Amino acid sequence: MRLTAQQRKDYENHLARAERLHNTGDLSGALKAYREALKLADDQQQTAIKGQIDELHDMLTFVSSVDDENAARNSFAPLDWLKDHLQTLLLSGVVVASALLLLLIVPPLLQGGPGSQGSPPPLSEEDLADTYARGDNSAPLTELKGNLDPADRQYVKEADSRMRLSVPAEILEPYPSKYVIEDQAPISETPGGSVLEKLPRNQQVLLIGKTPAANWLRIRLADRRMAWIPARMLADEPYKTPAEIDAEIKASMGGQYWQLLVHGREFPFSYFLRVNAPDAASAHAAVVAGYQAYASRQLLRMINRYSHRQIKTIAVEAASFTGGSPERLDVNLSLYSQTNSRSSRQPLGQQQVTLVRGPNTGRYLMQVPLEGM
To answer: What's the count of helices (H) and strands (E) in the chain, helices before strands?
Structure first.
């Protein structure tokens, strides 16, 4: 069959395209191009092209088999994996079961071992000791006024020898403890009855009942006897004399009538001077001593931190106490600085503080911020 010029050109193009696709690895495209060229080839050319087509068929078959093998290798077979790891899974299960068994068996053995005493016997109410707590109204609180942050407001406890008695509306067990505040307080079998005996001051009793008017209270003594006592002879706390109260306040402030309080977690800190003295003379001396302690340490350190002229000592002086027990005690302080032992003292500043006499206790109270002079 003779080909026209156009057919020969198409034949050559198909052959060239088939060879190009074959070289680039596109076997399917090359196979299609060879088949198009086969339609235009003569007998001799058809034999050569058919050989190329058969070769491409073999290559495509090989590639397909390789892909199927890879897909089978990469696919997950649960049964095969289970067969391969069955022994490992069984061993892991045995270990976990053994651990759980130990957790269930060992704690009871430890609790019931030789060193165990078993569960303790239940406690009765008679075995439990009474607990005592200071009531909310056990002592008045006097709020100090000043330029203080409301969230950081300071309070000074004003204690005195006046006793308070709180009687609940309904008395339930455990019975509240009370204290006898009268020496030789009489008790009777009935309210207002004949006197059975007299109790010493500060003896502790249990309040178990009251009359409707709450003027007589029924108490239980340490020997479990019941009796009645006038309500005015009991209080929530033991009786303390003014001297005992003064000693307690003085001990809480470090053995003196003044105390420096520090507020804040980092520099600069806030300092307060607290004074709680029984009389005006002690209050005057406490103010001078407290300011001297503050000035010789905190104030001196603060001044030397920011001043180019270093100060060695600061002295605090006040006018002598004139006596008396005024309702308001004003203390005028003068501060003097000295750079070295040979230099003369220089005035550093002045400060006036005021102490107020408590209306109930007669003690002089003060708590003021120390902000320098």
So the answer is: 7, 15
| Three-state secondary structure call for residue 366 | strand
User: For 74-102, what is each residue's pLDDT tens digit?
Assistant: 555 566 667 677 778 778 888 888 888 87
Distance, CA of 37 to CA of 45 (rounded, Å): 9
CA-CA distance, 252 to 276, in Å (whole number)? 11
Share of the chain above pLDDT 70, in %: 77
Written as one letter, the residue type at 231 is A
How far apart, in whole angstroms, are the C-alpha atoms of residue 365 and residue 363? 6
Q: How far apart are CA 267 and CA 121, in angstroms?
A: 56
Residue 368 is which amino acid?
V
Band of pLDDT at residue 316, cut at 50, 70 and 90: very high
Q: Are 331 and 355 in contact (CB under 8 A)?
A: yes
CB 333 within 8 A of CB 351: yes
pLDDT given for residue 137 in this prediction: 45
Give 277's strand partners. 364
Secondary structure percentages of the chain, helix, strand, coil, to 5: 40, 25, 40
Give CA–CA dist 189/227, Å, rounded: 5
Radius of gyration of the chain (CA): 52
Contact 211, 130 (CB under 8 A): no
Which contiguous run of DSSP H or E holds residue 307? none
pLDDT tens per residue across span 117-170: 545 555 454 554 555 454 444 444 344 344 444 444 444 455 555 667 888 877
- Residue type at position 192: G
Compute the average pLDDT of residues 62-82: 64
Token digits for 107? 């704690």
Which pTM was predicted?
Answer: 0.47
Q: How far apart are CA 232 and CA 219, in angstroms?
A: 13
* DSSP-derived 3-state class of residue 110: helix
How many CB atoms lie under 10 A from the CB of residue 263?
Answer: 13
Residue 116 above 80 pLDDT?
no
Closest CA to 165 of 106, 227, 128, 210: 210
Pairing of strands 270-277, 313-318: unpaired
